[in-house]
Write a structure and sequence with these properties.
- By secondary structure, this protein is of the alpha/beta class.
- It contains 8 helices and 5 strands; from the N terminus they run E-H-E-H-H-H-E-H-E-H-H-E-H.
- The model has no long low-confidence stretch (mean pLDDT 89).
Length: 204
């Protein structure tokens, strides 16, 4: 019997875009619960980090001090946590990544993790938005989800600047590896993005 992921055109979807570019919104729309096995599994890096912080006091203190300033947690921590998390997941379903990679090094390590687990049909969705739109979306999310890191304008700007400096190298990495990159504009809102992603992934 074939893996469930073999029924889909891709076995891994990777979302890249500025903070506030609907990555989380799109993933919540396309992914299923643990029981909905025909839908991708939402691999949400912010949630994985929260789980790790709850069980590891030293990591919690490190993450708190960095994230309060808009600084990313070091790659060694992030990718180690992600690798452990992936080891416990079902390997017969499509995986959808939200919040990783944030730089070229993470992209390379994620690609290694996936290929080691026989995930070879990756697609990258590059969600394109203006900085102004991203900032507005982040502020709305701060109110809706009560996220403290979204409420400080200086922290938000630091995160935006950090990602802008990394995005070109991330996209270049995937194109050099001959991994398909699909560019989608966020100008028409999240619903339009969701429909384009569903169509590409063969989801109804």
């Amino acid at each position: 019997m074939k893996d469930l992921k073999e029924r889909h055109p891709y076995d891994a979807a990777i979302f890249v875009g500025l903070p506030g570019s609907y990555k989380g919104t799109v993933n919540k729309a396309i992914c299923g619960s643990s029981r909905d096995r025909n839908r991708p599994i939402h691999i949400e890096m912010s949630r994985i980090i929260k789980l790790k912080r709850a069980e590891d006091k030293k990591f919690d203190e490190l993450a708190d001090s960095l994230m309060a300033r808009g600084i990313l947690v070091p790659d060694s921590h992030i990718m180690g946590i992600l690798n452990d998390y992936l080891s416990d997941l079902s390997h017969d379903r499509v995986w959808s990544f939200d919040g990783v990679p944030r730089n070229q090094n993470q992209a390379g390590r994620l690609d290694h993790f996936l290929r080691k687990r026989k995930y070879h049909r990756q697609v990258v969705f590059y969600l394109q938005t203006t900085e102004a739109q991203a900032r507005e979306n982040i502020l709305q999310r701060a109110v809706k989800e009560a996220r403290e890191d979204d409420q400080n304008p200086e922290v938000v700007q630091t995160r935006l600047d950090t990602f802008k400096s990394e995005i070109v190298s991330i996209i270049e990495f995937y194109r050099e590896r001959k991994i398909e990159v699909v560019e989608i504009s966020c100008a028409n809102g999240s619903s339009a993005v969701i429909e384009k992603v569903k169509e590409k992934l063969g989801l109804r």
